[in-house]
Amino acid sequence: MQPPGTAQRIALVAFPGIRAFDVAVIAEVWGVDRTGRGAPPFELRRCAPDRAPVRMPGGLTLAPDQALDWTATADLVVVPGVDDHLAPVPEPVLDALRDAHRAGVPVAALCGGAFVLAQAGLLDGRRAVTHWNLTTLLSAAHPGVEVVPDALFVEDDGVWTAAGVAAGIDLCLHLVRTAHGAEAAATIARSMVTAPFRTGTQAQFIEHPAPTADDREASDILAAVRERALRRLSEPLTVAELARWAGMSPRSFARHFIATTGTTPIQWLLDQRVAAAQQLLERTDLPMPEVARRCGFGSEVTMRQHFAARLATSPRDYRRSFRRSFRAAG
Questions:
Q1: What angle do CA 263, 23, 168 make, to 5 degrees?
Q2: Rounded alpha-carbon distances, angstroms, from residue 210 to 201, 205, 206, 207, 221
Q3: Other C-beta atoms lying within 10 Å of the C-beta of residue 267
Q4: Whole-angstrom Cα distance, residue 323 to residue 319?
Q5: Is 48 exposed, middle or buried (0-12, 13-18, 19+ CB in 10 A)?
Q6: DSSP 3-state assignment of 87?
Q7: 178 vs 184: CA distance, rounded Å
Q8: Which PROSITE patterns does this entry report, sorted A to Z (predicted)?
Q9: Burial, 283: exposed, middle or buried (Cβ in 10 Å; 0-12, 13-18, 19+)?
Q10: Angle between helices 182-192 and 315-329 (to 10 degrees)
Q11: Tens digit of each residue's pLDDT (9 = 90 or more) over 265-311
């Protein structure tokens, strides 16, 4: 957790060939001052081998403002994706990434940036993900990497990787959530007009035949069911109940739900309950049993079990860490 009030130092690693979209995502999450809205302060630096403008595909350039050695003193290092996934990465960049990881700095890569971390040897023997259309290439080019085919993002020993394009936004917001709490991530997400977090896997985005009218109707029905469920999280919702709202059998409902969201109805519900509990723990002083009741866990014990499984912490420790941050921001 980042100490309240101190600016988190973010190093964006820049070299020729990085993708402008990923650079824009990193800059939008960490490069905009939203402290007036209650978001934490950040110090984003663009680190490159020299101060020459960095060329990106599409005719754009990026102006570096720090040398690569700044990465080892940062709180987080982020690598944008690249267009040419097999092109050699400048050795000074690879050395800087290795040095940062040895110094204990978390290192994250968006989309094809996983290939950069793989060239640096940071993914050897570790789990990693990239765009679903690049997983076979990553496995072939770097057989020492344990490629996870369908996750939106994964972490292994302080090394983070994300799937394609929008999953980079998911990872960046998750890294904010990890350091500063759910409310900070939600504040930034609202400013970006995007979801604070998405559940499921990138399997839902892999190319499939064009959806039929029935598929589109089912998707609309499921969206309405999810919205209704969010309004009634305090209730002991079941798959059978959600299926009844959708006018489907439980088996058909579960099949359509997984196809649409990439996760099961039960997992989705649990993710929403944990997210709701995080917000209440940050924003209120409600007793733990009341937080558990409002979020549909039934008991504090059950809530504690799910926090341990998903966040590797307890509700009380989470509140102790992030309620203080929320008050400081307010």
A1: 5
A2: 19, 12, 12, 9, 18
A3: 15
A4: 5
A5: buried
A6: coil
A7: 10
A8: HTH_ARAC_FAMILY_2 (PS01124)
A9: middle
A10: 50
A11: 999 999 899 989 988 998 899 999 999 999 999 999 999 999 988 88
Position 151: which residue type? A
Q: Give burial (CB, 10 Å; 0-12/13-18/19+) of 113.
A: buried
User: Side chain identity at 188, as an amino acid letter?
Assistant: I
Length of the chain: 330
Strand ranges, E, within 96-184: 107-109, 127-128, 146-147, 153-156, 159-162
> Helix 239-246 crosses helix 265-283 at what angle (to 10 degrees)?
100
Q: Pull the structure tokens for residue 189.
A: 């997400």
How far apart are the C-alpha atoms of 291 and 123, rounded to whole Å? 39
Q: What is the CA radius of gyration of the chain?
A: 21
> pTM for this one?
0.72
Encoded amino acid at 225, one letter: V
Among 162, 172, 87, 89, residue whose Cα is nearest residue 132:
162
Q: Are strands 60-62 and 8-13 parallel, antiparallel or unpaired?
A: unpaired
Are 170 and 111 in contact by the 8 Å Cβ rule? The answer is no
Q: Residues 32, 191: contact at Cβ < 8 Å?
A: yes
How far apart, in whole angstroms, are the C-alpha atoms of residue 45 and residue 96? 14
Closest CA to 282 of 328, 330, 329, 322: 322
Q: Considering the chain, what is the average pLDDT of its residues?
A: 88
CB 55, CB 34: distance < 8 Å: no
CA 239 to CA 214: how far, in whole Å? 21
Tokens of 126: 């570790």
- Specify which residues 76 forms β-bridges with: 10
Q: Are strands 127-128 and 146-147 parallel, antiparallel or unpaired?
A: parallel
